[in-house]
Each structure stands twice: as structure tokens, then as C-alpha cells.
Amino acid sequence: MLRAMLIAVAIAGFAGTSAHAASCGNDASGYERWKAEFSAEARARGVSQKALAALAATGYSTKTIRADRGQKSFRLSLQQFMAKRGADTIVRQGRRHKANNAALLASIESTYGVPPGPLVAIWGMETAFGGFMGDINILSSVATLAYDCRRSAFFTGHLYAALDLIGRGWLSPNAIGAAHGEIGQTQFLAGNLLKYGADGDGNGRVDLIRSRADALASTARFLKAHGWRRGAGYQPGEPNFRALQAWNAAGVYQQAIAIIGRRIDE
């Protein structure tokens, strides 16, 4: 039986903090100084020694910054975006994955009210159904973005969340993910994993990297928490489209998920 669980968040008092003592920067030159300052603050806030050691081993990720500055695909038209992302292939493969995971997806829909289509569409769009989950150290990515002045406040909370996950043993310091520190088969940021992580395979832990059940259940839990209504439509203008908008801020991505999900569900 599908068993969802909300991971306890010991860092709840500061995970969403928008300010910190360490000074941000716009290139690699100040990263080590920032890291020392941030580590001192994190230690004072009770972050574990294991997590602090993992942070100390991080390096400035130029690949992360390059990706953060170059998200050009979201500026494409919907037709161009879907062609670039291989929408037809995702639909074709998604229908097969839907059939192969029918019992799991039915259990998730029973629990959260989210049908297979949008979940499988997100799974396919994010990582080609777990085929490629990234090639950058997750903690280095998040730490780099917390240091970078462009969105330091936003990623500081996710950095504390990632450190908490490492301290609890939920995330390896060596774990590899996407350019912005996204984790697992449907690409959760660390703070969202803490809030919405679900134990879809019932083994007592949440592992979005190895467990498709956990990844899909967590995605459904996220959508439900953002207003998904059982039985309502999810195309633009329909009630559940707002939940898809919460998943990704790019309009072309939101529309693509709705279209691909509908085709998978047909």
C-alpha cells in the first residue's frame, strides 16, 4: 500500500531564511570566503558536523552558473519547445511506462487524486524516465547558487535543506543531480523534498534517485499540496492547471506538461 510521509524538518526555523551573514558574489573569486562564513553561521544554527564536512568539500560550480544564465529553451514558442524536448517520444515512451507501472500509478491516484498522465509527463520531461538525472554534485550546485548574488535568498533555504538531508542520511554528499541541485527522477529541490517527499514503495525512507515509486508519489503529493483537485481537468484554464504552474514557472513547460499528459492519458 502506498504510504506517504512528511519528513520532519529540524531546520524549519531557518530553512526559508532570506538573509544571512555571508556575503554573496558573482564569480568564483569569493566562494571560499563565503563558504567559511556560511559554515560558521550554519554551525551556530546546529547543522551537523557530517553536513558541514560535506559543505567544506564543495567547489564553485561553473556548470551550474552557466546553466542558470543560459535557460534559452524557455524563450521558445510552445511548438519549438515541444519539438526540442521530444514531446512525441515522451508520449510514446510514457504510454509504455504508464502500462508497466499501472498498479503503482493507480495507487498514487487513489491517494492523491492525480492521474497518471501528468505524473508520467513530468517524469519524462525532467529525466527521460530516470535515464538522466544530471551530472553535477548536488551540494556544490546548491551552495554555488546560495553564494551567487542573483538568487542567493531563494537558494539559501534549499542549501540548509540539503545540509539537513545529508545530516539525516537521506542524501549522500556525493549525490549527483541537475544544474540547480535538483534531486532524483522528477527533479526536486532539497526544500521541496523535505516538504513533500513521500515513501511510495513503503520501505520507510524517501529516495527520489533510486525509487520511481517515491519520485512519482512525491510529485503527486506536491501537486495535491498546490491545489490539485481529484477529477478536475489540468489543461490551461481548467482548475488543476494552477498546480502544474506551481511545478515550473515557465509557461511553455506548463503547457507542454498539460498537452503531453493528456496524450498519455488518452
General description of the model:
Helices cover 54% and strands 2% of the residues. It contains 13 helices and 2 strands. It has helices at residues 31-44, 49-56, 62-69, 78-84, 87-100, 102-112, 116-127, 138-147, 152-168, 190-196, 212-225, 241-247, 251-265; strands at 136-137, 176-177. The protein has a two-stranded antiparallel ribbon with strand order 1-2. The chain is globular, with a radius of gyration of 18 Å.
Compile the SSE list and pairings.
Layout lengths: L30 H14 L4 H8 L5 H8 L8 H7 L2 H14 L1 H11 L3 H12 L8 E2 H10 L4 H17 L7 E2 L12 H7 L15 H14 L15 H7 L3 H15 L1
Antiparallel strand pairs: 1-2
Tags for this model:
266 residues; 2 strands; Lysozyme; mainly alpha; two-stranded antiparallel ribbon; single chain
Q: TL;DR of this structure?
A:
This protein has helices at residues 31-44, 49-56, 62-69, 78-84, 87-100, 102-112, 116-127, 138-147, 152-168, 190-196, 212-225, 241-247, 251-265; strands at residues 136-137, 176-177. It is mainly α.
